[in-house]
């Protein structure tokens, strides 16, 4: 006789399978959206301020940017390509008037600032504490700052006075007034010997800080000289002017220009070397242009603050980003990673009235340009209007012939 069948375990298995099926079904039906991953951009988001920003500087080793505004406040931000991840780390309101220039020390531990209130401040980068203050550093409002090494730095003011300071002594060991107008920009050679200045009087000044002596002034140029850069491995010096012209000098031939060319901009208010042969310029029209030096040519546009004069440009430590500040109370970031790889054809000339090439996605005409579609629509509408006018003209000609 066969043994009776055991049914209890089978029912348990069926119940278990049924419960697992319900669980899987409930999981499949649960379509509640999880937290969205933050968007990663090509460049950090724009930074907005309550007052116009005069000056910006990138940290030499961290993703940090400093900015000084017309109210005398100094801000330090961390920046990131992750959306909404820019964060204010600290701010300082020690200056009584407009902060005109900022610069990080080479080790990134201190931030130097100069102001219209004639003072120099040195701040601790980590906490924003004031480490040193030099009040009444100049008799006139300070305009420009240049860090030379870990001990020396130079300052220029609105009257044309140049001072070179030694932090170990806490005083200036070199004071020279050879310009008739404000010092707009300064640069020093690789040997830390020759310091060059650009001035609103239209001249370039040459100073030997090793010998503590003034060398010479260049010939007067048209308009203010607003910016200065050493190019071509130290063989050339480029000066931007308020007339929209770049003047070139040979090294050791500082008295007279060797070449000059206009970039078809109303002015050149600031200039920053990107490579040994390419500079970026900021102008009163709000456009940032990449310009080749020898061959002298405007390559294209990197970005823009539409209709707002650009005050200063800065390059990140890795050369990936270009930052700009303008009268629109914003600091904007641009992708500069591809500018260094541009090869300029010596024999090819840009066609007249041709729109400049967009060198970044956010530049006018670039992939992310909000107005690109509007421009295309405008061009199409203009073409239609021209066609309609031609048709009307042809109709009127026919009627006249009758």
Automatic annotation (TrEMBL):
GO BP annotations, alphabetical order: rRNA processing
Keywords: Nucleus, Repeat, rRNA processing, WD repeat
Biased composition (Basic and acidic residues): 12-21, 375-385
A Pfam family reported for this protein in Swiss-Prot or TrEMBL: WDR55
SUPFAM superfamilies: WD40 repeat-like
Protein name per Swiss-Prot or TrEMBL: WD repeat-containing protein 55
Record's subcellular location: Nucleus, Nucleolus
Function: Nucleolar protein that acts as a modulator of rRNA synthesis. Plays a central role during organogenesis.
GO-annotated cellular components: nucleolus
Alphabetized InterPro entries for the sequence: WD40/YVTN_repeat-like_dom_sf, WD40_repeat_CS, WD40_repeat_dom_sf, WD40_rpt, WDR55, WDR55/POC1
CDD domains hit by this protein: WD40 (cd00200)
UniProt-annotated stretches for the region Disordered: 1-43, 375-402
Gene3D superfamilies: YVTN repeat-like/Quinoprotein amine dehydrogenase (2.130.10.10)
Species annotation: Engystomops pustulosus
PROSITE patterns: WD_REPEATS_1, WD_REPEATS_2
Similarity remark: Belongs to the WD repeat WDR55 family.
């Amino acid at each position: 006789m066969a043994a009776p069948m055991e049914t209890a375990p089978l029912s348990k298995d069926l119940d278990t399978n049924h419960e697992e099926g319900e669980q899987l079904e409930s999981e499949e039906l649960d379509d509640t959206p999880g937290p969205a991953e933050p968007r990663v951009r090509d460049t950090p988001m724009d930074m907005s301020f309550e007052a116009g920003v005069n000056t910006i500087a990138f940290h030499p080793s961290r993703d940090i940017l400093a900015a000084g505004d017309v109210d005398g406040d100094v801000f330090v931000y961390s920046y990131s390509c992750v959306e909404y991840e820019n964060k204010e780390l600290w701010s300082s309101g020690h200056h009584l008037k407009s902060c005109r220039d900022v610069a990080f020390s080479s080790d990134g531990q201190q931030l130097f600032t100069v102001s219209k209130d004639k003072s120099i401040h040195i701040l601790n980068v980590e906490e924003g504490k004031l480490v040193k203050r030099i009040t009444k550093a100049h008799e006139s409002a300070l305009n420009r700052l240049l860090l030379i090494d870990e001990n020396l730095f130079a300052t220029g003011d609105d009257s044309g006075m140049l001072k070179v300071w030694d932090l170990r002594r806490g005083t200036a060991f070199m004071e020279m007034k050879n310009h008739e107008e404000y010092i707009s920009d300064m640069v020093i050679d690789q040997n830390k010997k020759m310091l060059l200045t650009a001035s609103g009087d239209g001249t370039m000044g040459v100073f030997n800080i090793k010998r503590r002596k003034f060398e010479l002034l260049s010939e007067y140029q048209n308009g203010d000289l607003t910016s200065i850069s050493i190019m071509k491995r130290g063989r050339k010096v480029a000066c931007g002017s308020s007339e929209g012209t770049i003047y070139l000098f040979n090294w050791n031939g500082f008295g007279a220009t060797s070449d000059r060319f206009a970039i078809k901009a109303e002015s050149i208010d600031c200039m920053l070397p990107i490579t040994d042969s390419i500079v970026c310029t900021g102008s009163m029209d709000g456009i940032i242009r990449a310009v080749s030096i020898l061959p002298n040519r405007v390559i294209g546009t990197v970005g823009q603050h539409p209709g707002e004069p650009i005050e200063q440009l800065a390059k990140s430590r890795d050369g990936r980003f270009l930052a700009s500040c303008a009268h629109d109370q914003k600091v904007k970031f641009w992708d500069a990673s591809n500018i260094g790889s541009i090869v300029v054809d010596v024999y090819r000339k840009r066609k007249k009235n041709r729109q400049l090439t967009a060198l970044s996605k956010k530049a006018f005409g670039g992939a992310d340009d909000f107005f690109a579609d509007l421009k295309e629509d405008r061009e199409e509408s203009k073409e239609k209007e021209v066609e309609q006018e031609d048709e009307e003209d042809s109709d009127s000609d026919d009627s006249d012939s009758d």
